[in-house]
# Entry
Amino acid sequence: MAVFNAMPYLVDAVESILYQSYQDFEFIIVDDGSTDDSLAYLQSVDDARIKIIPQSNRGTAAAGNVGLAHCTRQYLARMDADDWSDPSRLERLADALDANPDVSMVGSSFAYFGDRTAGRPVPMPQDHDSIYRALLRGDHGMVHGASMMRTDCMRAVGGYWEHRFFEDWDLFLRMAEVGKLMNVPDSLYLYRAHDTSLSSRRLEEMRLHYDYAIDQAKRRREGIPTCDLAEFQSQRKNRPVTKAIGERLDNIALANYRRAMGEIYGHRPLRGRMRLLSASLWNPRRTLNRIGRRFQSRID
# Structure
């Protein structure tokens, strides 16, 4: 678990791991330079399984690589510091890896939650081909915080890249190259939705890293030499104007969708539904697809 200023949600996240049905684990927590009470809380928890590693603020990916370096177990599970794991999560995912030796990484379906309530489970693709295709076209195929992977496979692909964003997407795609990806059908993870906004500059930077991860995976698959981020960014400037406009519209839709989830499951559900409508106007196809996944479980 990487932690940066995660109070007050950190308490529930930590306890959801400590009270798992599977108890034989080491809990590596990297405090990434928190300036709130996160580190003090962690140091107050009396549990021999917890190993706290403080460091200066270097970002989630760097913290993840520090955790990987200290991992001594066969399997490594991720957990975000403001989310919640079902009590059976570690046991269920470890059983899936035990039963499927060709699988390098396994995850589960999930549900959004906020300060007021939680949503219905969001189904995820379950087989490798469906997950990989989703990732390559830019759709969610796995949830990082809900994942468990073989430690040797993660080390084989070099751990996380340490660019600013989407280290999880890049990791999923590279883990697919050393084994199969898999999701168990049940929802074992609650993903906290926040109602904070994202700046247009941050959205553009996130989009750049997301596109870069997908581009590099396609290059590796096709046997084309990869390139560094600066070269990709230079090449990307030559993309058609219509594509650039479409990406910007999708960025706006995504920002509205993410904030809407936080409002719907928080204390402003009406505002959240109005924002969801706004997201669908900016990018109808992508937003309706996101909404459709949320409500699919009501039909199944």
Observations:
- Residues 200-299 form one domain.
